[in-house]
Amino acid sequence: MTDVLFTIGENPPPRLDKALARNVPERAISRSRLSRMIAEGAVEVNGVVVTDQKARVQAGDDIVIHLPEAVESHMLPEDIPLEVLFEDDDLIVVNKPAGMVVHPAPGTPSGTLVNALLAHCGENLSGVGGMKRPGIVHRIDKDTSGLLVVAKSDAAHQGLADQFLDHSIERLYTAVCFGVPSAGDPRLMGLAGTSFEAGNQLKITTQLARHKTDRQRQAVVLQNGKHAVTRVRVMQELAGGVAAVVECKLETGRTHQIRVHMSYAGHALLGDQTYSRKRKLAGAHTEQVAAFPRQALHAGLLGFKHPITGGALRFTSPLPADIQELIDLLSA
Question: Cα–Cα distances in Å, from 278 out to 156, 193, 272, 274?
Fold first, then answer.
């Protein structure tokens, strides 16, 4: 256990968690982790334990954070090839292939992106999450391909986590969906949480929570969920309008967000075995589309400010061969 002691500076933010994130010295701690530590009773303000992250603080307040030492990771490095788009002392940007899990879990203890990163980066991954060297700031699903940024330093982890928290990260996904989302669809116009913006752009605003009966799925709920916003723009109609290539822009980043929102809107992603409800494509190429082995979803653009230098970084990844072949098939 290490105690981090400091004093709140002038003109602090109105919330305790934000004030701590601004003033915590040297050893960077992400705001999301600070929030957890506040709730766990690990933060004292003027000698009193405070468990409300929204509590107000004043300049001159004395803070003590009881910070447990990062534990050794049980994860092992594995020599797995990585497609690296950018790397410096603070972060690394990789293009994850479909089929690779980001972080080890009970069903997938090895062969993950983290195992590959441990081999590639060695000791140079952040421990902000409470475990030495994991570095993961955000994730994409196993069968979603595309761009991820990983923190190598604790300071970078905090800076990136805060950008994800305030929704300043730019994330664009390309997907292939059933049907063509349109403002002329009366069903969509009457669906709670959906609206259309300029340029026929569909906006989906709902709450998301774990499904009541299937714990592996997420679901749209009316209350007690997490706020989620997805914007959808049609890029190309396919097969006479029975499918479309769409660009999905995330304002928030919830688990399975695009997949759940597109299914809720009646435009589930091709190949999505969890949310497409075994839907089949009408017309030609039915068997080929039914055999597509994953959700047709690719994280193709990632933009953010470098958490240390402040410089703007923006990365793109072309569509992988399998999704491009699917589009070509439906365009023929």
Answer: 42, 24, 8, 8
Specify the domain boundaries for CATH 3.10.290.10 within the chain.
Answer: 2-67
Q: How far apart are CA 100 and CA 144, in angstroms?
A: 9
Q: Do 61 and 7 touch, CB atoms closer than 8 A?
A: yes
Q: Are 231 and 289 in contact (CB under 8 A)?
A: no
Q: What is the predicted pLDDT for the residue at 329? A: 94
> Has 141 been annotated as catalytic?
yes
pLDDT of residue 44: 94
CATH 3.30.2350.10 applies to domain 171-331: yes
Q: Which of 17, 141, 154, 272 is catalytic?
A: 141
pLDDT for 332 equals: 80
* Under 8 Å between Cβ of 202 and 196: yes
Check residue 188 and report its DSSP letter: H
Separation between Cα atoms, residue 183 and residue 196, nearest integer Å: 6
pLDDT given for residue 7 in this prediction: 92
Give per-10-residue mean pLDDT for the chain (332 aa): 84 89 70 85 94 93 83 76 96 97 83 91 67 75 96 86 88 97 90 93 95 89 89 95 96 94 96 86 79 96 97 98 96 86
Enter the tokens of residue 24: 């915590």
Structure tokens at 316: 């793109």
pLDDT reported for residue 135: 81
Q: Is 197 helix (H, G, I), strand (E, B) or coil?
A: strand
Tell me the C-alpha distance between 64 and 94, whole Å.
37
Q: How far is CA 232 from CA 195, 227, 288, 327, in A?
A: 11, 17, 25, 18
**What was the pLDDT predicted at 227?**
92
Looking at the structure, give the CATH architecture of the domain made up of residues 2-67. Roll (3.10)
98: amino acid identity, one letter = A
Which residues of the chain form CATH 3.30.2350.10? 84-166, 171-331
What pLDDT is attached to residue 223?
83
Name the residue with tokens 């190429």.
285
**Structurally, what CATH architecture does the domain formed by 84-166 represent?**
2-Layer Sandwich (3.30)
